[in-house]
Amino acid sequence: MSIHYFSIVSLSCLAGLAFIPLSKKFVLKYRIVSSRGVPLAGGINIGASFFLACSLAIIFYNSLFRETAGILISSFIMLVFGVVDDRRELSVFAKFLVQIIAASVLVFFGVRTQIIYIGTLLNLIVTFFWVLGISNAFNHLDVMDGLSAGVALVVSSGLFLICIFSADIKTAMLLSALIGSLISFLFYNLPPAKIYLGNSGSHFLGFILASVALAISYAPLERKVALFSPLFILGFPIFDTLFLMLMRLKKKKLPFKKSNDHVALRLLKKGYSKAGTLILALSLCMFFVLCGIALSRVSNLAGAVIIAFAILISIALTVKISKMQIDG
Q1: Which of 4, 1, 26, 47 is nearest to 205 (CA)?
Q2: pTM to 2 decimals?
Q3: What tens digit of pLDDT does each residue of 308-317 get?
């Protein structure tokens, strides 16, 4: 089966490498969506190569599951409206409305949290908060070349390993297609970027990773600590968002008001190069992902130790990074 995954990754990557130069020329020629002369076509390219690879895999292996269909349909909705948002900035209300519609489609197809201790209603509430939160976390993370897509690649690789451990073939195929499309995109998005994600790309990546994380089974019920596995695998975008909100509140600003308090921007202001900042950010992302993978494999006691250790590291980093001044 590993050759199947490799084939999907390769197909998605090759499709992306073929699409990007063409779309880049088209976008710049007709001035459709660009920022400072750099095309905002990343979302279109990642989406195109992802959906192409998924479609061919479904046809070739003759396997389309209800949950897979839900993830594909709802993420396509996010991508389409993201392109509209790049073309003509949508209001905050319109953005949240689209995200709620896409999340509702996801839930309709049975993709939601399955926490047996809290009941159906709370599971639905948690699902909506999770999907909208992660979708916007990746959008907030897209503040420098290669960061959001690089984090998405590390996270999707971690989720892929969980699927392999649990023999979740259908979700592993989705992740294979996403990994391939991200690899091709990063060839053009690493510093200095020749193409940007745009709102379409960052929201699409956040939405599909949040959705896939819900579709995966992490461990048997007796290992309750595994419930925290997706939180840690997606720990870096969560950490960055919470850090951002905390710094804004510390400055007595609204937590959702734009500012330069992102972890990456503070590192850049401190004097790190773009490449150095990217390496540090992806290393921290890898730390969270490895913690999340470990939580899906170890006992409750060992998992509690891992969680405590990761929380202490997060607190220490928050204190250290918060001292890096970005103003003046």
Answers
A1: 47
A2: 0.93
A3: 999 999 999 9
